[in-house]
């Protein structure tokens, strides 16, 4: 049985000393593919270099909404060029994050997030690649932007680390975006998320870790890694009342449809 971790940050310093081991443990856990997210002028080339070194890694390239200074719009060409790399399967992560806004100039920063978001969507459309959307405390505005931009490909993208209610999930699916879920699904204090995932159509869900963050139980609070996707899959098997092999088959088909891998 195989799984894909559709959202990892393997270029982070957290893995500087033992990435070989981390990748090996992922393979041993059946996590046969990982999408590592390159965000910004330093993280993008690091992520592409990792993809060239490890055959089971793929990349997404973008600028994270909480760190827009990591690549200015004057440097956009760096992102455009990276998007053409053969192992790049998505654009992002991009989106809106109203949870962590600067105390000074919050409104200006929000506007900047909107502008970057549209830049990413335009690039994704031109490259015919899905977009990976980060959204925190900003679902109404995020959905408004996605709706206004329109469905630019059969599978326009994913709302990563989905954390909202069933009505919002329904709106996401209406726009033909899938959602992804990770370690939070295993948290004791997340019955609301499990209820949303229980109602999610089986062809609309991806697995992820968002590592190094949000490690699933029993590793909660520690460094996360792609191999733990397996623990998320096991929890999903419980939530959907399906054998693990069906979880593997269904989610892998979704990965193939959205990312082509
Ligand atoms: Ni991320």
Number of domains: 1
- Principal-axes shape call: globular
Average predicted local confidence, pLDDT = 98
Number of helices: 9
C-alpha Rg, in Å? 17 Å
Which helices and strands occur, and which strands form pairs?
Layout: E1 3-8, H1 19-28, E2 31-39, H2 43-53, E3 57-62, H3 76-83, E4 88-97, H4 106-127, E5 131-136, H5 139-149, E6 157-159, H6 166-174, E7 178-181, H7 191-199, E8 205-207, H8 229-240, H9 244-259
Helix pairs in contact: 8-9
The chain binds nickel (II) ion.
Overview of this protein structure:
The chain has 261 residues and is α/β, with parallel strands linked by helices. The protein has a single domain (3-259), classed as TIM Barrel. It is 41% helix and 18% strand. It has 9 helices and 8 strands. It has helices at 19-28, 43-53, 76-83, 106-127, 139-149, 166-174, 191-199, 229-240, 244-259, and strands spanning 3-8, 31-39, 57-62, 88-97, 131-136, 157-159, 178-181, 205-207. The longest helix is centred in the middle third of the chain and has 22 residues, at 106-127. The two termini are 16 Å apart. Residues 7, 9, 37, 93, 210 line the site of nickel (II) ion.
């Amino acid at each position: 049985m195989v799984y894909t971790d559709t959202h990892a940050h393997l270029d982070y310093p957290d893995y500087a000393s033992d990435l070989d081991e981390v990748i090996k443990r992922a393979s041993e856990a059946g996590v046969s593919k990982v999408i590592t997210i390159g965000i910004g002028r330093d993280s993008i080339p690091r992520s592409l270099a990792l993809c060239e070194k490890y055959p089971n890694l793929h990349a997404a390239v973008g600028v994270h909404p909480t760190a827009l200074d990591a690549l200015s719009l004057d440097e956009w060409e760096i992102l455009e060029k990276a998007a053409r790399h053969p192992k790049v399967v998505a654009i992002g992560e991009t989106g809106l994050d109203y949870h962590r806004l600067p105390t000074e100039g919050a409104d200006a920063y929000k506007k900047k997030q909107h502008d970057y978001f549209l830049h990413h969507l335009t690039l994704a459309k031109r490259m015919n690649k899905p977009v990976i959307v980060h959204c925190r405390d900003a679902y109404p505005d995020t959905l408004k932007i996605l709706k206004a931009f329109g469905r630019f490909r059969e599978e326009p993208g994913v709302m990563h680390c989905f954390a909202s209610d069933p009505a919002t999930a329904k709106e996401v699916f209406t726009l033909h975006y899938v959602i992804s879920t990770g370690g939070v699904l295993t948290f004791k204090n997340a019955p609301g998320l499990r209820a949303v995932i229980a109602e999610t159509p089986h062809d609309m869900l991806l697995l992820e870790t968002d590592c190094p963050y949000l490690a699933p139980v029993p590793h909660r609070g520690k460094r996360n890694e792609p191999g733990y996707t397996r623990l998320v899959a096991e929890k999903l098997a419980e939530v959907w009342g399906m054998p693990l092999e069906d979880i593997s088959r269904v989610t892998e088909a979704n990965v193939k449809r959205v990312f082509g891998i």
